[in-house]
Design brief:
The complex is a heterodimer of chains A (about 290) and B (about 280). Chain A has about 290 residues and is mostly helical. Chain A has twelve helices and two strands. Chain A has helices at about 5-35, 50-55, 60-90, 95-110, 110-120, 130-135, 150-175, 180-190, 195-220, 225-230, 245-255, 255-280, and strands at about 35, 45. In chain A, helix 7 packs across helix 9. The longest helix of chain A is centred in the first third of the chain and has 32 residues, at about 60-90. The longest helix of chain B is centred in the first third of the chain and has 35 residues, at about 1-35. Chain B is globular, with a radius of gyration of 24 Å. Chains A and B meet through helix 1, helix 3, helix 4, helix 5 and helix 6 of A and helix 1, helix 4, helix 5, helix 6 and helix 10 of B.
């Protein structure tokens, strides 16, 4: 391989040009914006209006609390379920594996707008099918979008429904890379299936599960379409407003770009910090 | 031995007893999306649980078309998806090709950029992207605005780098000895050798564009230029339009992707798991 900087950059030029204009400059620009007041022209340096405001803004803390609540409840449930699904999908005893894989993966190809519409309809308190089923078995229907906790539950159910198959497929690919003779050896030593799972499968899956975990954390920090569309812009009364939705409202409804940029950097910093913490806790213990 | 066979059988039953109901539960909303799309208001607001198709699909569709011109937005989504996918595959495969085949100045930095932005939340760039496109360039409601800013993606480059690195280099060196230009080697030797990977990447990128919601929401307000997900989102919570019609929109957005997934599952899975294993 000879050194060919000119040729290489010829191939890279269009890609890097898009990067420079639509990523590199925006990363710098929004960092600068996060220190500027943008409510009145001319915009100017005034971090009191952005970072000064964010630390004492109850609406921001509410969105932060909601986002972390969803993260703390939804991600563990989803990843546990995904691991279980992956192990069962990998079982040689299972028939119609392709069909089952399709069932869990189908929600992944459905777009945010379409699935949000569907969940909003299914969980409608008066005529949604979920309440119809609940009432059929003799219980009282739930006011899904009127009760803060119920609305939060809808978001968690919706996100889990949509993404569990995606994570199961990733974990399944990790499972399939574990060589069979590891289990063969374990069987010869009379290791029970439960112990095989705990002492062989789970440790070997750690990197793949960590990968899923990091993706899920980053995804959760950016939740927007679900509270925007399913629970009607963070309803009831802000109970499901996430950081992503709050950023949207500040940036694109109030057109307060400076403050929205401060929120954006807070989201990024939290996503990086939580991911790093997860990687550190889950690191290989040498 | 007999005991073992029985145990295996019990295990098989147990696995199916968990998986089959779960799978039905997971498919149920997808199934109902299509059923709801065929229901009129009477069936929708009925107190009974209706699980079979109604006969209002065409009425719902024509209402949807009359009220928001939904077919036009579907057409927009197709155009944006096709052009975006073509350009993105071209750009990322060129970049992936360069990373595999050449040593060059600041290569580590370029790789670092690609990996580093992979986990960066879109929110960090969306505000300046919006300011540039909508205000500075005045490009709201244009094809350029819908297609160009999302073109940068890390996944495609990593995917294509992986693809090209599995092709033996000798194939390219033979062409070089013949004096073929690097561009032509990429185009006529490199790309044909990674066709399955190009297919997998195309599917993932098209899906990405087809379902993209936030960016098109920000830069379109003219119904003629909205993509289908934005148009659909704008109907949610609108009391003037029936739930049946909204579900027709959702079903029209979903059905093509489900078909693609069924028929091209192999490519699909390759695209999804690419990021995970490497």
């Amino acid at each position: 391989m000879r050194r060919r900087s000119l040729t290489a950059y010829g191939f890279l030029a269009p890609y890097l040009a898009i990067f420079a204009v639509f990523w590199l400059w925006p990363i710098i620009y929004s960092f600068m914006l996060s220190f500027m007041q943008t409510r009145r022209a001319p915009w100017g340096f005034n971090p009191n209006m952005t970072w000064g405001r964010i630390v004492q803004d109850p609406a921001f803390y509410n969105a932060l609390k909601n986002t972390l609540t969803i993260l703390a409840i939804q991600v563990p449930i989803m990843l546990t379920l995904a691991t279980l699904l992956a192990v069962l999908l990998n079982s040689k005893l299972l028939k119609a594996r392709g069909l089952l894989r399709f069932a869990f993966f189908a929600p992944v190809v459905i777009g945010e707008a379409a699935y949000a519409a569907l969940f909003r309809l299914m969980f409608n308190a008066e005529f949604g099918i979920v309440n119809k089923v609940i009432e059929t078995i003799g219980l009282n229907g739930v006011n899904w979008f009127g009760d803060p906790e119920a609305a939060m539950a809808v978001i968690i159910i919706a996100v889990t429904w949509r993404w569990v198959g995606y994570n199961a497929i990733i974990i399944l690919s990790g499972l399939q890379s574990i060589p069979d003779d590891v289990y063969e050896a374990a069987r010869l030593d009379n290791v029970s299936p439960r112990q095989q799972f705990l002492y062989i499968t789970l440790p070997l899956l750690r990197p793949v599960i960590l990968f899923s975990l990091v993706l899920s954390v980053i995804g959760s920090m950016q939740l927007f379409a679900e509270p925007f569309l399913i629970t009607n812009v963070g309803g009831p009364g802000g109970a499901t407003e996430t950081l992503g939705l709050y950023l949207y409202r500040q940036g694109f409804l109030n057109l307060n770009f400076g403050y929205a940029s401060a929120i954006a950097y807070t989201i990024a910093a939290l996503a990086v910090a939580i991911s790093a913490l997860n990687l550190w806790i889950g690191r290989e213990k040498a | 031995m007999k005991l073992n066979a029985r145990k295996t059988r019990m295990n098989a039953i147990a696995i199916h007893a968990v998986m089959v109901p779960l799978a039905i539960l997971w498919l149920f909303p997808v199934y109902m999306m299509f059923i709801f799309a065929t229901m009129g208001d009477n069936a929708m607001f009925s107190h009974r649980i209706l699980l079979l198709p109604g006969d209002q699909f065409w009425t719902n569709l024509s209402d949807l078309q009359r009220d928001v011109g939904f077919l036009r937005t579907l057409f927009n989504s197709v155009v944006v998806g096709v052009i975006y996918t073509f350009l993105s595959v071209l750009l990322t495969s060129m970049a992936g090709w360069a990373l595999v085949n050449y040593k060059f100045f600041a290569k580590g930095t370029v790789v670092g950029i690609i990996l580093g932005t992979m986990t960066l939340p879109f929110f960090v760039v969306v505000i300046p992207q919006f300011i540039m496109i909508a205000r500075d360039f005045g490009l709201s409601n244009t094809w350029v605005a819908l297609i160009v800013p999302p073109l940068f993606n890390s996944l495609g480059v990593l995917f294509m780098r992986q693809a090209f690195s599995m092709v033996p280099k000798e194939l390219f060196d033979a062409a070089r000895v013949e004096g073929v230009s690097e561009w032509k080697i990429y185009l006529h030797v490199g790309l044909p050798l990674v066709k399955p990977m190009l297919a997998a990447l195309s599917i993932i990128l098209f899906l990405h564009s087809w379902n993209n919601y936030l960016w098109p929401l920000l830069i379109t307000n003219d119904p003629e230029m909205m993509t289908a997900p934005v148009a659909l989102g704008s109907l949610i919570g609108n009391v003037d339009i029936s739930w049946g019609s909204i579900m027709v929109g959702a079903a029209l957005l979903t059905a093509p992707m489900l078909l693609v997934f069924v028929f091209l599952q192999k490519f699909f899975m390759a695209g999804i798991t690419a990021g995970a294993v490497k």
